[in-house]
Structures are given as C-alpha cells and as structure tokens.
C-alpha cells in the first residue's frame, strides 16, 4: 500500500515537548507604513531573560518577511534567517530588539497575516499569522502590552485606521493605539480603509463608558443595527451571569468580505466575516440573525475566556473555545428558547462532531500532536469542548460552577493556562476529584451507552443497566470508561411524570441503577402513586452527555415519549428516532412510511401548547448524513441515492397525509406586520416554512410561488425558493432573484448555495457545471467558494452521485484553491471524511481523487496533513 503519511511529518508539534520561551517580553511597539504591495513594519521589542524558564537560543518566528534591517540595542545585527524565523546572538542582560521588514498585503491570498480585502487592510493572526507580519515569539504564552502606530499611504489617505486597545494620537494620516492588557500576538489586529461606523455606547456595571462601533463599507451602514444590539446584550449578559466587565474605552467590530473563518476575537477589535455582521430583513434570514447574535456574543465573551485568560499553547485551544462556545450557547438559550437552542446545538454536534469522531479525523478535545494547527479548529475542540463543560456544570451544579469560574478568573487573569489549571479550579472550588473526568479531554471517539431494563412488577422496581464503551479511533485502540452524567426521569403508563429529572453518574464499564416506586432501598425513588404497569424511563434528558444512547425501544414507546415526555429534548428526540427508524426501514427494506409515525407527527404539528419553533424542529426529518451513519451503524452500506429518494418519498407522504393540518398551520403561522428577527416571530416563520416545504410536494408549488412573489423578507423569499427548487421548479424565480440581488455579495452567496444544496443526484453534474461556470463565481472569495463547492460537497445526494463526477469536480477545485488559500482548501477536504462508509465503487473513486490531491506538487502543509489523515 502507498504511504499516505503527510509529507511534512517532520514538523509534528507535540504537547509533551512544550518548553517555555526563555525571555520575557516587556513591551512591544510597532509602526506600520501601509502600502498595498510594500508595507513596512518597524518593531521595537524589549526582552529580558526569564529566570523561571530554561535557557535556549534566541529564536523569533517570521515567515515571508523581507528583512530590511535588524538592531540589538541600536546596533545593526545580521541574524540567521530560515523559512521559519530568525536566530541571533543576544546579550545576557535585558535588551531591545528592533527590526524593519517589508511585506506584501495585496499578494497575501491566504488571508493569514496582513492582507487586503476590497481595498481595505486587515489582519488575521490566530493561530500563527503574526509571524507573517514581523519577527516575534509568535506563541500564545508570550504576553505583552502593545503600542501601535499606523501611517496611511501618502497618495491615498485612509479614513479609518484601527488597532487593539485605547486610541492615542490620531492626526492627519496616522493613528496610534495603546493596548495596556498584556496579550499574545495571535490577538493582534490592524484594520485600515474606507469604512463607516454604526456607533453606540455601553456603560459597564462599574460605570465605565465604552464607545461601541460596527465598521462596515459605505453603503452597508443600515445593516449593522442587529449586530450592535447583540453586542450590547452580550456585554450586559456577561456582567450578570459571569460578573465579567469590559476593560477598554472602545470596542469595535469590523466586517470583512474575505475571511477564512466566522470571526476573530482580537482584543478590543473583533474582525468578522461580513456574513456574520450585516443583516437587514430584506437580505438576511432568521437563521442569519440568530447566527449573528451567537457569533457576536462568542467573540465578545472571548474578552475574558481567551484574552484575559489565554492558552499556554495551541493544544489547550479548547480551554478558550470549548468554554466560549458553552457561554455563547447559554447566552443564546437565554435570549431565545432554551430547549430549542439545545436541540439545535445537539443537531449541529451530531452533524459535525459525531461525524468527525466516527471517522479518520477523530482526535481528542485536547489533541496531543499536530502538523498544522489551523487544521485543529474543529467541531471536536469547539463543540465537544463545550459539551465537556456542560457536563462539568451538571455534575457540580450551577452554583459551584459559578464559584469555580470566579476562582478561575481571579487566579488566572493575565496568564496563559492549561486544561490542568482549569480542572484544578473546579477541584479546589468543589473538593471533587476530577481525574477520571479528565479523560474527556484526552480520549477521542463518541462513547456508546447501551441501556437495558428490568422491570420487577411485584417489587415495584425498575433496574436500568448501563454499559459504556468507546470504539477505537486513530492512535487510540483501547478506551477507558468515562464519567458520564445521565439525566433521567420516569413516566407512568398514563404519561404522568413520577420521577423528575435526576442525574446518575456512570463511571464504570457497566453499572446498574435501581429505581424503586416507593419501596425504599433503591438508588432512586419514584412516586408510588401512579397508574399501575411498567413505567417508562426517559433517559439522557437534555442530552446530558455527548454519547450515542443505544436502547432497544419499540415504536410505541417512542410515540409515547413524543406525546408525554416533560423533557423537551427527549420529547423531540423520541420523534426524531421514530423518523429515523422509519426512514432506515424504507431505505434498507423498501418499507412504507406507516401510519404510526404520520399520526404521531400530526399530533405534534397540531399541538398548539407547543412552541412553534419546537414544532418546526419536530417536523424536520433527519439529514441524509444522519441516515447514512445510522445505516452504517446497523451494519449495512448506505446508498446515498436511495436515502435521498426515501426522504423525498416520506416528505411527499407527509405532505399528502397531513395536508389539512399543514395547510391550516401555513395560514395560522403567518406573521403579520413588519419583519422583526425575534425568536417568537422566527419560530412561527420556521413552522410555516416547514409546512410550506411539505405542502409544495403535493400542491405543485402554487403556495411557494405565491409566497415568493409576495415575500417581504429574505426568510420567506428563500424558504419559498428552496421549496420550489426541491420539487424541480423555480427557474423563473431563480432568475428574478438574481436580477434583484446581483450586486449583493452575501445574498448572491445564498443564490449559489441554495442551488448547490438542493441539486438531486441526476441534476448534480449540470448544476455544478453551471454554477462553477457562472461569471459571478468568484472562487477566490472564501464565502463564494464555500457557497458552491462547500454546498455541493455538503449535499450528499449530489456529492455521491453514482458516476463520481462531483468527487472529481470538488477535488479539481481544491487543487486550484490550495496554492492560494490553503486554510480554506484544507477545511473543505473534510467533505471526504466519511468515505469508508460507502460501497467499493464510491470508495475507489474517492480514493483516486484523494490520491490525486495528495500527489499535487507543492501541496500546502494544511491540505497535505488532512488528506494524509483521511487516507490513513
Ligand atoms: N478564534 C476564533 C476563530 C478563528 C480561528 C482561526 C482563525 O484563523 C485560522 C480565524 C478565526 C473564534 O473562535 O471565533
Ligand atoms: Zn472562539
């Protein structure tokens, strides 16, 4: 067999090899003389030996820098320079290092370091971009205050020039910024360009005024209100829930069109992908508004969890990301419906993280080695990292959690920390031993928890036996039992709750929990007054742990829980499992949907005691990818085309059978008056949209066409267009949409993505050809690339079309993108991560394409690492 080990494996970085930087950086002064192709960066950095650190050579990171001059204590020096940085002899006593380098922002297509986007200068330094700006110990454990001076190009003054911290002298064509808070270089930011601000103010709980700005390109001013409002709500929330106040006189958000990720938490100067800032009712959907709220909060919350307390090294990334995701999820749950938010988060976790954990890219929440750190900004680090914190909070309780966090901030403010520091705070605040819990950080893979029940009618006792095991993952063949908090409740045969939620802690490979019905002597007690008969347990309420629960349950019991469970998550989960079982049987045995599922669905749809947003979720079907995973777990080979067809068939059946109820809902859920993005209106629109999608399967698209023509907001317009495309209609509407929104980048991304995401297996090739050949397919823009190539690869029906043409097309585009933008190319290779699930033909075609990608001359370290791991 061919060796697919990544070619650059000599650069593997290992957690166990951590050593501190031998010097302390006192402070940093930077001057930027901006020029599109020849920006000069002058640095002045003070260094003093760190007596606590082992000594070592003086090495500063630096990549693609043209060194003009370097000086130590004012005396010119000639350092040794490699592709990675410089070394030079330095005095034993404190010294000043100065350098002048030249860089080319407009040639920086990787969007890492200082680059240009639509004429504007901006930076992205996480994780290792600062070394492309100047020579520096570019590692998160080196923290220092920064002074920055920005000088605009002489021929073209720039109205706005920003950096981190508080503003200093701003005169003529220059601006100075001073950031007093010691920070690592990955939090450095600079923005300069023709920008306008939507401004506001915030007064902290201690009375400090803060100027807030959302900077955008002229013309976009009227799309910033929601982001600004979300920022203010986030600031208030962090004060109330975590006691965290803001710490500078200015806080700015800048929207940038060319950005590899969602957003970045640079100190006092967050930089966002414009997709997560700009929103108006006419151009953004409810989901966009919700994302903006969550991401604005996420970046703001990093000010404490990430910036004031940062990571010692990149292996500790989950220290800031898991915690900040957990915090933004709490915030969104508070702003909106908590149960609906939880279901959404679990859907995302299963779609991205479980998928990752079950394939060749599985890695622990705290990885132990990497080749390219940018490849580890993953669902496991972020979303599973957040789940681990949620479990911890559940185990210690809300009050102890808050006490532990208070201690964390008090003890570690201004420090670069580790997961050990984090857990020690919980141990010290609660007296708990977390050594077994810590395995969640080092053991990859999604645990399976199998539950069996034994009901003793005579004794009135229910015994639940839990068996946990975690399948092997790359490099980890054997797994140990984890601490798994399982929230459970009990209903009697009439559907009354007889035991409210209790948390049991699994710690062993096998464990039995006894629930007595008023008999005493059991682990847990349920109410004795109940309708006789076997009670029904509701297990893993609120999705209390990121595990796969395996339980032999009848369709009747699922329908019972869907009807009666008092835990909204498990109520939804029961319906979802019912749908999944129906679909799996349709795909594997050619079964018919069956009345039971349809009646259960109808009952939920009609139940107006339930939140419309919840009902919309209950009406949604499992994704193609979920079903492929479920079929694979059941020991069969998933056929993506058959899955797609079964989903279509079930949707038609639902549309037909539930037509009267859906049609009523469609009318009833119309939201009158002008559009507002609040959760309640969005929930009604979501339910109405779900009804429309099903109805369109049986009404020939008449309602969708009418809705498209009348829609007064993007949510309804795009919902209608999607419904039409999925039934093979909507050609005229697509053209009209394009005519109306041609000049709007973000809206045109939706136009591309919707077509790519809804293409059927038969259409996929033509759609892909048409979209990639479209003159508006500006593939160098990451959002546009993702909206076409990412959406095609994320549409399993299209991606896996039987002839393998989309595998080839996606690979061709990755090969094209890689030399320009390795980060985004590498990220998209994850489209192939599930390849081992499929039939031999598809596996063969995928392998061929991955090998072709892997063999590309000069392939980036990013993509090479990913392909190597996927093929391994
Ligand atoms: N820290 C940011 C995400 C981010 C990570 C890496 C980036 O470039 C490689 C950019 C942004 C966050 O969590 O929001
Ligand atoms: Zn983050």
UniProtKB/TrEMBL annotation:
Residues 226-437 form the Peptidase M1 membrane alanine aminopeptidase domain. Residues 556-872 form the Peptidase M1 alanyl aminopeptidase C-terminal domain. CDD domains: M1_APN. PANTHER family: PUROMYCIN-SENSITIVE AMINOPEPTIDASE. It catalyses: Release of an N-terminal amino acid, Xaa-|-Yaa- from a peptide, amide or arylamide. Xaa is preferably Ala, but may be most amino acids including Pro (slow action). When a terminal hydrophobic residue is followed by a prolyl residue, the two may be released as an intact Xaa-Pro dipeptide. The keyword Thylakoid does not apply. It comes from the Bacteria. Pfam families: DUF3458, DUF3458_C, Peptidase_M1, Peptidase_M1_N. GO terms for molecular function: alanyl aminopeptidase activity. Its cofactor is Zn(2+). It comes from Tropicimonas omnivorans. Signal peptide: none annotated. Belongs to the peptidase M1 family. The gene is pepN. InterPro entries: Aminopeptidase_N-like_N (IPR045357), Aminopeptidase_N-like_N_sf (IPR042097), PepN_Ig-like_sf (IPR038438), Peptidase_M1 (IPR001930), Peptidase_M1_dom (IPR014782), Peptidase_M1_pepN (IPR012779), Peptidase_M1_pepN_C (IPR024601), Peptidase_M1_pepN_C_sf (IPR037144). Gene3D superfamilies: 2.60.40.1840, 3.30.2010.30, Neutral Protease Domain 2, Peptidase M1, alanyl aminopeptidase, C-terminal domain, tricorn interacting facor f3 domain. The lineage of its organism: Bacteria, Pseudomonadati, Pseudomonadota, Alphaproteobacteria, Rhodobacterales. Its EC number is 3.4.11.2. This is Aminopeptidase N. It is an enzyme of class 3 (hydrolase). Residues 445-551 form the Peptidase M1 alanyl aminopeptidase Ig-like fold domain. Residues 85-187 form the Aminopeptidase N-like N-terminal domain. Keywords: Aminopeptidase, Hydrolase, Metal-binding, Metalloprotease, Protease, Zinc.
